[in-house]
Design brief:
- One of its GO terms (cellular component) is plasma membrane.
- With 267 residues, this protein is an alpha/beta fold.
- The protein has helices at residues 10-15, 64-71, 94-103, 122-129, 135-140, 144-150, 166-178, 196-213, 224-227, and strands at 24-32, 39-48, 53-57, 79-84, 87-88, 105-108, 184-188, 216-220, 232-237, 240-246, 253-254, 260-261.
- The chain has a domain at 21-109 and 183-246: P-loop containing nucleotide triphosphate hydrolases (Rossmann fold, 3-Layer(aba) Sandwich).
- It contains 9 helices and 12 strands.
- The chain has a 6-stranded mixed sheet with strand order 6-7-8-3-9-10, sandwiched between helices. Strands 2-1-4-5 form a 4-stranded antiparallel sheet, covered by helices on one side.
- A hairpin with a 2-residue loop joins strand 4 and strand 5 (87-88).
- The radius of gyration is 18 Å and the shape is globular.
- Mean pLDDT is 83; it is low at 1-8, 13-22 and 247-267.
- Bound molecules: adenosine-5'-diphosphate and magnesium ion.
Length: 267
């Protein structure tokens, strides 16, 4: 974990290559909710390199979803800064933030399949996800049928969402999320409602698409089997970032039940 100084001009440092190209940087991030005592995020610092894949773990209420919505530019931080490449997400005016959300960053919120249009077909859902793109951008994008075939939905391309299985809907939500060619894909519990078979298939697909598109991927999960497929895991607790693990070593996993699993030499 890289902890950076809040006074540093992060954008300038990034342009100079000090942080590597186009990383996601988070500096002293706080989020409170008016009228609520809890501080959902209390000073999160982190740095994610381009193309990196990170899984966030941690008990319920530890701030994972809040962090994801801030990274996705869906909510604004109460304090602190978020940088994506040379943009400072946390200070962008709303129209530019909307532009960023429709192109550079895709967020699959918890229960993302609920945001699909139930009475529209799979193809229509992809077209809808690309509504904010210009005609030229849409022409450059992967054609709907090709994208659907890529996620294993070729046979249901013209079927309405309400007739699809949970696994098919999650694949479609993923196809919609990557359909705009984002630099960063954020997914909150993308496999929590799925059978083991569908869960493994969706996670493999996320990694395959990441390989093909070079997308930076951040996933929130409470499933250790899912986290184990990620080269980097970060655990959150009480609105703070805890210990990190890399490449399967030195994991300190705070399970959904709040149990801390220490590496053997620390136990
Ligand atoms: P997680 O995804 O790890 O379960 P959340 O980010 O959803 O955690 O929540 C972190 C804390 O912030 C919790 O205490 C939760 O109750 C609170 N919180 C989240 N969103 C809101 C909101 N819109 N209004 C009030 N409190 C919220
Ligand atoms: Mg959550």
């Amino acid at each position: 974990m890289t902890v950076v100084d809040a006074d540093v001009d992060f954008g300038e440092l990034d342009r100079q290559g000090g942080l590597g190209v186009r990383c996601l940087g988070v500096v002293h991030l706080y989020r409170t909710f008016e009228g609520h005592d809890v501080v959902a995020l209390q000073g999160v610092d982190l740095s994610i390199r381009p193309g990196e894949r990170v899984a966030f773990l941690g008990p319920s209420g530890s701030g994972k979803s809040t962090l994801l919505t801030l990274l996705g530019g869906i909510q604004r931080p109460s304090a602190g800064r978020i940088f994506l490449g040379d943009s400072e997400i946390s200070r962008l005016p709303e129209p530019e933030l909307a532009r960023l959300r429709s192109r550079r960053v895709s967020t699959m919120l918890q229960g993302a399949t609920r945001n699909l249009l139930p009475y529209a077909t799979a193809r229509q859902n992809i077209a809808f996800a690309r509504l904010a793109l210009s005609g030229a951008e849409r022409k450059q994008a992967v054609p709907e049928r090709e994208l659907l075939a890529r996620v294993g939905l070729a046979s249901v391309a013209d079927q309405v969402v309400s007739t699809m299985s949970g696994g098919q809907r999650q694949r479609l939500a993923l196809a919609c999320a990557v359909s705009t060619g984002p630099q960063l894909l954020l997914a909150d519990e993308p496999t929590s409602q799925l059978s083991h078979e569908d869960r493994d298939a969706v996670i493999s697909l996320i990694h395959e698409l990441g390989d093909e598109l070079g997308t930076t991927i951040v996933v929130v999960t409470h499933q250790p089997e899912v986290a184990a497929t990620f080269p980097r895991t970060i655990t959150m607790k009480g609105g703070r970032v805890g210990l990190e693990g890399r490449d399967g070593a030195e994991y300190v996993v705070i399970g959904a039940e709040g149990v801390v699993h220490l590496p053997t030499h620390l136990a």
